[in-house]
Amino acid sequence: MIGLNHFLVFSGTLFCIGLFGALAKRNAIAILMGLEVMLTAVNVNLVAISRYVTPEALVGQVFAVFVIAVAAAEVAVGLALIVAIYRNRISVNVEDFDWLKW
Amino acid sequence: MNIMFWIIAVITLGSALLMVLNKNIFHSALFMVVTFLGVAAIYMMLQADFLAAVQILVYGGAITIFIIFGIMLTVRGNMKQTNLFSKNAALAGLVSLALIVINAIMVLMTDWPVSENAPPVETVGHIAELMLTKFIVPFEVVAVLLLVALLGAIIIAKEVKKTS
Questions:
Q1: Does position A73 have pLDDT exceeding 70, yes or no?
Q2: Nearest to B59 by CA among A89, A50, A39
Q3: Is residue B72's pLDDT more than 70?
Q4: CATH label of the domain that carries residue B86
Q5: What is the pLDDT, as a whole number, of residue B164?
Q6: Of the N and C termini of chain B, which has fewer Cβ atoms inside 10 Å?
């Protein structure tokens, strides 16, 4: 029988795959994609706990809607930043973004 | 239910892994869509039908379009080597793998207070009620946040003109 544990391990694994993408990639857009996968995994976690621990309250689903809205805002601003940096440096390689170090 | 969960979990996690490992960033974006649709199926399985629809609309639609726009605006020439690993990929892989194992052990060791009550059949009405009564302030704040993000994205991405 599929229970809460399965969903929590699933969302934790998805989160760590997203984390690996965000940490190990060189392209700034790939890092943004990893972040989106991480946020989605957090949503799965919220909805699973809401479904199994307090099934009648639905508060977890409301939280998940807010997280989705924040994720949409984040990806818009992030891509605008990447496009603006690309215009200056003609690169999206994060190893080229070194204004703050010498 | 059991077999469906395993099929969907394998498809979702497998496409997430392919998204990370792929060397072509456009293929990565396509695998990301499969991951998001798999998560929508997981929401269906958790009886969150409204969230499944929102997931497909926002993640499968809007965010994917954003990402593909970003790829098309920034990548030039050959697509084949556009999504490579950085120098510290091995360390990142080690950290992620350790975190997967630790998370699984912690989840299986914890005694969750699982409730036997059935979830409500119709979720949209309840979510709307909660959002417009108990969570009215976060709801308005998110509306303002979306407006600010929209304006900020336009201003940041706009070409800066030399004034002199």
A1: yes
A2: A39
A3: yes
A4: 1.20.120.1200
A5: 59
A6: C
Does A96 reach chain B within 8 Å, measured CB to CB? Answer: no
Place of tokens 């699973």: A48
Predicted ipTM?
0.91
Into how many domains does chain B fold?
A: 1
Q: What is the mean pLDDT of residues B38-63?
A: 92
* DSSP letter for each residue of B6-63: HHHHHHHHHHHHHHHH-SSHHHHHHHHHHHHHHHHHHHHHTT-HHHHHHIIIIIIIII
Is B138 a domain residue? Answer: no
Whether residue B76 lies inside any domain: the answer is yes
pLDDT tens-digit profile of B88-106?
889 999 999 999 999 999 9
- Of the CA atoms within 13 Å of residue A43, those in its CB half-sphere come to 27
**Residue B117 gets which letter from DSSP?**
P
- The answer to whether the beta carbons of residues A60 and B46 sit under 8 Å apart is no
Is B153 among the domain residues? no
Does residue B146 belong to any structural domain of this protein? no
Per-residue confidence (pLDDT) for residue B161, from 0 to 100: 67
Tell me whether residues A19 and B55 touch, CB distance under 8 A.
no
Q: Which domains does chain A have, with CATH numbers?
A: 4-96 (1.10.287.3510)
CB interface of B with A, residues 55-84, below 8 Å: 55, 58-59, 62-63, 66-67, 69-71, 73-75, 82-84
**Taking the model in full, what pTM does it have?**
0.90
How far the first Cα of chain A sits from its last, in Å, is: 56
B9: containing domain:
2-116
